[in-house]
Design goal:
The protein is mainly β. It has no helices and eleven strands. The strands form two sheets. Strands 2, 4, 5, 6, 9, 10 and 11 form a seven-stranded mixed beta sheet that branches. It has a four-stranded antiparallel beta sheet with strand order 1-3-8-7, with no helix packed on it. A hairpin with a 4-residue loop joins strand 7 (about 65-70) and strand 8 (about 75-80). The radius of gyration is 14 Å and the shape is globular.
């Protein structure tokens, strides 16, 4: 198992930046995939960015070129740097960890952090 604690959300004007952090309770070397998802009111949760083993990354088309996912192995922390924020980026952002075992993949979630972008 792993516990995830997010931080860094807040209120920012359009065009501004925020950096989200996700601290894991175990070495992120032991986690197959870490990523960020978001959920806006009335919408389904969607993938924003993911980092797989070997530091391979992937992004939603809507954030490519604006958001960057990165990791600090020594701190067991994954970050989401968000630049050029738009009002449509407003959502609760969730950190996700996926761990594969003989029983299949298991997903773990943080509590979420609110990001609000004003126009």
């Amino acid at each position: 198992q792993v516990q995830l604690v997010e931080s860094g959300g807040g209120l920012v004007q359009a065009g501004g930046s925020l950096r989200l952090s996700c601290a894991a309770s175990r070495s992120i070397f032991t986690i197959n995939t870490m990523g960020w998802y978001r959920q806006a009111p009335g919408k389904q949760r969607e993938l924003v960015a993911v980092m797989r083993s070997g530091s391979l990354t992937d992004y939603a088309d809507s954030v490519k070129g604006r958001f960057t996912i990165s990791r600090d192995n020594a701190k067991n922390t994954v970050y989401l740097q968000m630049n050029s924020l738009k009002p449509e980026d407003t959502a609760v952002y969730y950190c996700n960890a996926r761990i594969h075992s003989a029983y299949g993949p298991s997903d773990y979630w943080g509590q979420g952090t609110q990001v609000t972008v004003s126009s």
